[in-house]
Amino acid sequence: MQFLSDNAASVHPRVWEAMRAADATDTPSDGDRWSQALDAAFSALFGREVAVLWAATGTAANCLSLASLCQPHGAVVCHEEAHIEVDEGGAPGFYLHGAKLILVPGESAKLTPDAMRMAVDPIRDDVHQVQPHAISVTQASEYGCCYRPEEIAALGALAKERGLGFHVDGARFANAVAWLGCDPLDAVGGADTLSFGFIKNGGMSAEAIVFFDPAMADVARYRRKRAGHLQSKGRYLAAQLLVMLEGNLWLDNARAANAAAAEIAAACGDRLMHPVEANELFVTLSPEERKALRTQGFSFYDWGDDAARLVTAWNTRADHVSAMTQAIAQL
Amino acid sequence: MQFLSDNAASVHPRVWEAMRAADATDTPSDGDRWSQALDAAFSALFGREVAVLWAATGTAANCLSLASLCQPHGAVVCHEEAHIEVDEGGAPGFYLHGAKLILVPGESAKLTPDAMRMAVDPIRDDVHQVQPHAISVTQASEYGCCYRPEEIAALGALAKERGLGFHVDGARFANAVAWLGCDPLDAVGGADTLSFGFIKNGGMSAEAIVFFDPAMADVARYRRKRAGHLQSKGRYLAAQLLVMLEGNLWLDNARAANAAAAEIAAACGDRLMHPVEANELFVTLSPEERKALRTQGFSFYDWGDDAARLVTAWNTRADHVSAMTQAIAQL
Amino acid sequence: MQFLSDNAASVHPRVWEAMRAADATDTPSDGDRWSQALDAAFSALFGREVAVLWAATGTAANCLSLASLCQPHGAVVCHEEAHIEVDEGGAPGFYLHGAKLILVPGESAKLTPDAMRMAVDPIRDDVHQVQPHAISVTQASEYGCCYRPEEIAALGALAKERGLGFHVDGARFANAVAWLGCDPLDAVGGADTLSFGFIKNGGMSAEAIVFFDPAMADVARYRRKRAGHLQSKGRYLAAQLLVMLEGNLWLDNARAANAAAAEIAAACGDRLMHPVEANELFVTLSPEERKALRTQGFSFYDWGDDAARLVTAWNTRADHVSAMTQAIAQL
Amino acid sequence: MQFLSDNAASVHPRVWEAMRAADATDTPSDGDRWSQALDAAFSALFGREVAVLWAATGTAANCLSLASLCQPHGAVVCHEEAHIEVDEGGAPGFYLHGAKLILVPGESAKLTPDAMRMAVDPIRDDVHQVQPHAISVTQASEYGCCYRPEEIAALGALAKERGLGFHVDGARFANAVAWLGCDPLDAVGGADTLSFGFIKNGGMSAEAIVFFDPAMADVARYRRKRAGHLQSKGRYLAAQLLVMLEGNLWLDNARAANAAAAEIAAACGDRLMHPVEANELFVTLSPEERKALRTQGFSFYDWGDDAARLVTAWNTRADHVSAMTQAIAQL
């Protein structure tokens, strides 16, 4: 009974089918019709013209996004526990050629305009100090919490006011939109770029980089190739993204994962360290309790000494959810 | 009838099966058993202990290899038409943090020890000049020609003598080994690292970076993550590589492609611009001749004004080969 | 009456003389005799064989040092208020090709082994996390406080134990040695590299990068040229360093600056925010008090809303010191 | 009798005086009045508004210029023997974060519009190929030859037409203007940035980076600090530049050097490998002839096996020039 990660989940059957369909005939690399269909498909989803590139990992999607918004001598403002800071092996430093991350604290890994101002306002406009060029927020956050449309719009507005680029790391964007129940566009707060994750949500190897200013994609295409992320058989990546948008498979998958998380959350009571607004649960559990759960066949990661992280996925089985719910209730 | 590129070819059915098999159960990202099996599988192939990392593109494989062999203030010596110089969008400059490529001429895109010495010997050991740190050769070359074991060994020996790292770009390494009929180890000339290509040879999205000094892989792992090339569902990449080695599928595929190329080559006579030693043909063809071929349903790329490049693949159909052979003969 | 910065001070007359002496005859750039004399002069000072390069700024000296100790995918551990973090315009990100700074808190901008362990121990040996490669400490610290020989030796020992490089930013190293009264070697705690500052201490444009492992300098020479820091008329920089070591001019200058600071410190009482162990004073002063001092002709920088930074230099006049001492006493 | 390099020459007495004058009083680093006077002084010289930053080396001046004109994923087109390619230790790769140099041949190290087109036109607008972002030419060229105003204007026009930045490496710009006898502005051909050299022309440690679009300087200031090239006592660099412009000392020095070269050139006849249009002579001289000259007390560098490079400077003595002239005539 696996609650380790949504990355551990299998690939959705419809994604397999779409990839196989893309295999039917030989297809040249350049301008395959799947990749060419991305702009229209995502433009329809967002209700405005966007340009979209696939990338094989969330780290690449984030860093190619940020490279569009921050020059090497600038800085990206982000939460101190942002994925780009703590989990990407220094990739932003690589892709941004040494640009800096300015770290900001905040509840449940969410930024607020006030916290951002406290970080940015003391920076003198002086060559000795690295100037902020962009802001990056994660929707849903690293603790599985969602920015409400008005919250993320306020951050976006602040970015614009200060002349900063605005990036949304949406590794679990689907879970956020499913939970918020809003239009996808309202969940990005006027972002310039969005890393729209599909791999944790039933995909195999394709994330979408959404450029809300399509011209940005033209430059990003060069950077993607330069980073070794242009796959010659990219049609198999594009096919994953396209099928996800068809009939809102992405939303269905996310809703399933969220529902599983919500069911478990209901049994956790005061054990919850953060509101459960997506598919992650951070649960206070003593070492003995974690041991007891593991003995019953549950797998998950420890979160420090006294807690665990449980993650549900599009394919988390109902019986596993029930079992976990009961097991926690009985601790 | 597609002779555009081996990149345009479909994925081999056994590769699909292996990927599906890796899908049977949820699997955590870290240390999945497919990725963990790579070292042993490739060590068996090469008859010595190697360490292997997957990467999604040949560009990434080359650049992660080279980053192990060349510091930012150094240079890589390569052929002036090497893929790393002309076709990777400047990726070596990115991955090697501004290291330089020193370009050397040579017949059929092959380097010789003499040509290398002519390029390297005049470099003064002086801080004004960028010092060579590594050599990179392509096996088979960009013109589909193979280094004989003794040829590549001579280059490897020269590299060692000068204290330079030695990298082999093996985007079509399978085709080279199939043509040479030698032990794979004899085709790398004592290389430190090999980019062993599978995507052009029936794979989907996985190349192998082979480190003949396994300790190098430990550092390269960090660089791979930092470049956004660590896929969370990497088991699907590892599965592609493993199945390719099973029963020598990689060699069978390459032999099929080579045989198709050889059959067409026999009809080309003096039109051949380079010996056909792998699965690429560079054929003198006037604009009218190319037009005639295209009218008959053949697709391929122009190579300058008076020639074309034809590429065969693991799945090039016998009837297409016969048709092309006849069509060229009748020009 | 200038207490703004030791950078604002004039150049010592003996430094001028030495530069003029280096001007007497035309001298080729390569291997001028002044630059060649540096190794011996500094080896004599430290009582062991070192190799020394000049650099025109402390930022360049720090970053060329660190580039010898930290690879692009690694991190440097330093104080959260270290000069390399807050005052160098992101230069470490540039010179280290995107390596990270891991920030550690500590009283008076000093690191302790415990604080370092708290920062470093939680880093998993996992490609998702940037691994520490080096430690950098500032002697005297950014708040003008000195590591005692045993304190800095403990940090150096910890670095060695963890396999980390150890760098000392000695922008005010002279002031530290003068205050500690110890052998210069005892003030570096077994460092691999030292940025030995002279510009704040009466020089014009030359700092020394001291490599305690001389072989490191051979590579650093290439990096210095690559950074555009190899001056063709470098003899004028070397001459500055050599004259500073002659008759211990560097120590005399530092003692003069320290003595001026100590005299003012004696008048500050509880106003002192940090012990005065070099030539900087951080003094609690209300806006009104600062205004009063400025009205009397003193210049200095504010330090936040309720304090000021006063810096003395080799040439701070005794009457200015007396005046400042009196003025503070009378507030 | 030194003909090695103009870098080997001493510093002009008026430069010394100006530096000493800048030493008269303590001066804060930020916005010293010498540095602040640069824009006006150079704007007067060029007859239009420019912004100017000092830098301590020509390499830094070139690379900071180019970083303003070329993004990391782009390329700079330059002569295959350009200083930035062969003599800067890979600094452009460092400052431009891995951007590429596209090398173009040309007589006497000069580019022509035709040669440029031949290099640039075949580059497909395709992510696999690095796109040109800027052109860099050297005035006077690496072989001491000058672009006539109409020649450099044609290159500048081509750059504009193609949307490329245009940089002039003017390490010996003074010698070029002196020889051309034209307005300085006419010698730069509509450049965006000029590295205006003073060090080879009697300065000590200051070159000027001239931005013909002053807004570019605002960003370059950040890059200069980030590269460790912001000197805290920068007033001594600014003072060098200012005195050079006073009364056209820069032109007088260059004229003296050029005249010395011209006098020697007159004795060289067919031995001259390139026209002598500045202060460098490339002279066919057999090993025996070079030995004979050295025996007579002349120092200079070999240029390959059968030639020598002679360089004159602002302070080359008339008797040395006569002696060299006679010695060559008598060979």
TrEMBL record, chains A, B, C, D:
SUPFAM superfamilies: PLP-dependent transferases. It comes from Tsuneonella flava. Belongs to the threonine aldolase family. This is Low specificity L-threonine aldolase. Signal peptide: none annotated. Residues 2-284 form the Aromatic amino acid beta-eliminating lyase/threonine aldolase domain. The keyword Cell division does not apply. Pfam families: Beta_elim_lyase (PF01212). InterPro entries: ArAA_b-elim_lyase/Thr_aldolase (IPR001597), PyrdxlP-dep_Trfase (IPR015424), PyrdxlP-dep_Trfase_major (IPR015421), PyrdxlP-dep_Trfase_small (IPR015422). Its cofactor is pyridoxal 5'-phosphate. It comes from the Bacteria. Homotetramer. Coiled coil: none annotated. Keywords: Pyridoxal phosphate.
